Structure formats: structure tokens, C-alpha cells
Please model this.
Amino acid sequence: MSAEIVLLTGDAEVPHLTESLLSHRPDLVVTPVLSLPELEQSCQISDHQSRRLIAYCTSLIVPAEILNTFSGLAYNFHPGPPTYPGVYPANFAIYDGASRFGVTSHAMTEKVDEGSIVGTEAFDIAPGSNFNDLEIKAYLALFELFKKQGPALVKTEAPLAELDIQWGSRKTTMQEYENLRNSDPVRNALLNDTEKARRHLAFGNVT
Model:
């Protein structure tokens, strides 16, 4: 059966993800897309019988009508643990003073970071880490999780086994992020030193 995986990701990730997938199934067709218009176009022109979408480190939200065009379940690789659904998980983990972090793979649904969880990797946060340190560590861990799940992902019709793990109840938003990283000197002057240090580690711009 002709099989295709559509990769919704960034330019830098495409060659590494493609190489990993093809190592498990050399006859697989891997189609990289960088935007929703490209994704929509790929759905219109593809003639492959078996197709799966994989989103990796992307902030794009895929509409249900596009998800429904794929014969196999679509999966997303989220650069944060199940306890941090939503945007900028590393920033919020540092801001919260978390001691553990991780990455997650999950089925894609119309609503962001709500699908069944199929994979996780967790690690300790080193003392004194800032958001950039944590993002790098999570980025590396996410690729390891992707490689680990590669053999299952290339079986485009078969769903991955679900884990008995639930998403956290708090889904971080762009509005929260913008409020906390606000660099307005007048507002920041009202913060105490502890809060300034906390925000500096988490968002990098508080003076």
C-alpha cells in the first residue's frame, strides 16, 4: 500500500525528521509542509492511499476539516510535558519554579493539546536554568522521543497505544505570556526584586 507522512514543521527540522522516518520505512513518501496553505494544498493533490499527519514543534493550529482528510490518526510532538499544555511551556515552567520538565506526543484534535497522550519523556531541571536552557534540553528530548516512536509512526494506518496520562488542567495562553514578559519600565518598577529575578529567568527581559 502506498503510504505518505505529511510533516508539518520548520525548515531546520525537515531533513532530520525525514531521515529518521525513512530509516524505518525506505519506501515511505515524506511530504514536508511549513504552513497551513501548504498543508491544505498537499491534501488536495495527494493520491496516496494511506496518509498520516505529524506536527512537530509548530504553533500552527490545524482545522478539523484538514485533520479529517487523513486516513491515519494525526500526531503532534509538543515541546513540554503533559502538565504544561498550551504555549511556551518552558517559560512557564521556569516561572513556576518547576523541578521537572519533559516532552509529549499526542493525537491531534481540533482543540490544541487535548488529544490522547501516546508518549512522554521527563527530566530534571538543573538549578539556575533559564527558559533558553530548558528549551534546548526539551528540543533534544523531543527528537529522541520522535526517533523512539518512529517504527510505530510509519505504520500509517495503525494508531499508537494511548498512555494513561492526562493533560494538566491549566492551558497557558499567549495573553498570559505577553502579560508576564511585558517590558514596560513603569510596570516593572512596581515589581519586587524576587519577582524581577523570576521573570528574568523565565522571559529574559525584565529590568
